Amino acid sequence: MISKLTRKTALVIVAFLVFATPAMASLVVQNFMQADISAADPCFFKVAGDDTITYTGADGDDPFVAFDATQTVQVDGSNLIEETISVRGMTGDRVVYTDVVRYQNRCNVPLDITLVADGANGTGDWADRSARIYISTSAGAIGAADEAEVPPAGLPGDVGAASGWDASPIVVNAGGAISETATGTVTLNPGQELRGAIVISTGTGAGDGVGTVNWQARATNNNN
Question: Domain total for the chain?
Fold first, then answer.
């Protein structure tokens, strides 16, 4: 249906638009808010797994895996905890560590856990050495006795969900290029923990240098 405007009506509308435009352009709304920033104990933890053991060899008592929770990294001017895991490979062998770190949910809500590499390359010496970083999909209770733990049924890299490991690891190739930068996402319920694994291949050409890879363990509130 077409409406018909009289000349008087049209003039009133035009006048309204002309006078309203400058007024709206100069409108300033100030809506004030306040954020009070405080600190509380963390509820997403990373602790050492059971692979933090030593062996006696030609190099003396050197660790297979060492876990250090005293290191820090500066983010936006604040010093944040950056746990450091030192892992030893064996020349000419592939070594599978299935319990180097445990990711614990001490929050009161489920968390979605994903491991994400920082950058597309490792640093240091990656000559003839590579690494794959996994997270388990089977969870156990925090602080459970060894006989009550529920470890993954298989090894990292085994095919199928029954293995208990996420099928998408972070992949650091020989030479240091990170071809896969993130794992899949695993939901971790309150009071439970997941295991972190590292698979290392150190060839006969691997020297005494050290290759370094940094990643973040990202925990997101699962609202489902």
Answer: 1
